[in-house]
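Contributing new records

If you add data, match the layout below exactly. Sequence lines come first and carry their own label; structure lines follow with theirs. Keep one chain per record. Anything else will be rejected by the validation script.
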Amino acid sequence: MLADRFMQEIKGGDLYYEGLVEPHELRESSRDALDFLLSELRRHAAAGSAKPPVASDLDFPHRVGVRRARQGVEGQKLTAAIHLDFGLLWSHLLWLAKQGDALTLAVHVQHVWTAVDSFAGRIHSAFMDERVLMAEKKSMSKQSFVALLLSDDPEPPELTARASTALSIPVDSRLWVAAAPITNDESLRSFAEQLRRQERHAYSHTWGVCTVVFWSAPPTDGAALLGVPEGWRCSADAAALAHVACGIAPLHLGLQGVRHAARVACEIALVLPPNFAGPAAMSDVWSLMAGAGLRTRMPQFIDSVLQSVDALSEPERHHLLMTVRTYSRTGDISRTAATLFCHRNTVMKRLRRFKKLTGLDMSVPEDAAQALIALADRSL
């Protein structure tokens, strides 16, 4: 009878349980719960007697809590539903009581509440423990797929589809990938956490000596940005990325490209000078990477330029390099002069000086490329 009344109170499970638990299971578990509570009350009442009643099924609250967690019931609603049992039990005890039982009821009301509250607490504790385990398993599962996507091992044909489901990222989704050395990855990890707080799909993974983060591009980051070296500057995430120290690969399409994009992002991140601020794209480091390769294979190609520049005094070297780099970005004497706050004749004089020292004419594209590669790792 009490179980039936409980089912009426929760509208057959629509209230609190929202249809997540089948009505027949809910009625059976409510009957067992009320039986458990009555056993607890009998145990309280018989405390100190020679023959206490048989102990309750102590594992019952744990089983209920675990099952409700797996069924997706909300913790607060579960606890609220269980606390309805106090009202049911107390009103039934009042109905059973005779006129002379008022004192007995008053003495034992605390036992009724303690039994119900303790029961609810044990269920909630088991419920929360199970939710934590479920979350850990889910997180481990996602991280396993992230690790597999970034692995150098051959991908099983079904991996991408399974990873797509686990990570909630469509197979052909547009993705950004960024990386930072693990010794300097705080800003990148904070950025990833910020995306997750916004319920964006963002995943972090330690990959060699780098931390890699990839995330779904905002819907406004259209196909026009795909493969563009500095496409991230036009991304809706550009403002949030502005102060994140990392290398970032061009926007790419699909989970299958994550490994290649991560490798690009890591290569960018690992060649950045220590004082480089904010994200860096391929266009920021191509000369550094080219210079590193040439220095290994053809050091004379680099040294022929550096020896002349390094022999200058610090002030002249600084102004000469600043002028060369600024001119290489503009290709225009007047714009270079405006950027450096000097006269255009000063710019031309410095460029002629550079040509005399190195033999490289910055107005000639081939010479300019050689100069930029040779001077890539020289600080101003």
